[in-house]
Amino acid sequence: MSEALKLTGIFKGYNLGQPSEIRVLNGVDLTLEPGHVTALVAPSGAGKSTLLHIAGLLDTPDKGTVTLAGQDLTGQTDRVRTRARRERIGFVYQFHHLLPEFTAAENIILPQLANGVSQATARAHAEDLLGRVGLSHRMDHRPAEMSGGEQQRTAFCRALANGPSLLLADEPTGNLDPGTSDTVFDALMTLVRETGMSALIATHNLALAARMDRTLRLEQGRLV
Predict the structure, then answer these.
(1) pTM of the complete model
(2) Could you tell me which residue ranges the ABC transporter domain spans (predicted)?
(3) 161: domain CATH number?
(4) Which helix (H) or strand (E) holds 84?
């Protein structure tokens, strides 16, 4: 079975108006196996968001390769990369970014419709995902009618709507109180385990990181 994600020799730097380049990633190698949950721990400004953006095909490295499910996507066209991102990768951020005018179910249905799924199938899948995270009673509620934890669990469901093989999460519980954070994290882990996908989760929360399969630390542009 192919690795869910393989990064090889990833370098990335920015000029940011400075006379010399600021090197953010300095030869990152990373392999994520299907069904594994990996914590990414790093201080602010260390480059974890840059790493997640490159892994998620939202940015390109200066040097190195990004391989997703056995396919090297580094030099592919924007169209190929966009399709791979839509079909194979789910994203979750610190803030849920749900569409406020749509219900919880509709937020999960929309990405499926964009992927060619029928309305009935998309609705059934949305109901199943929301049920798994204990939100059947919130199906037809808009984000403003839900708590922060409920919104974030809905965002997880949306990220998994198209059955991705890779989940990338950037501080997914960072905006929640400790009790809610645990509830949301438990829901995330349940979804990941049940679907067999691979997940890379950036977090400052060392207690949450300890509950994952392994922890990687980003230091001076390298993973240790």
Answers:
(1) 0.84
(2) 5-224
(3) 3.40.50.300
(4) helix 78-88
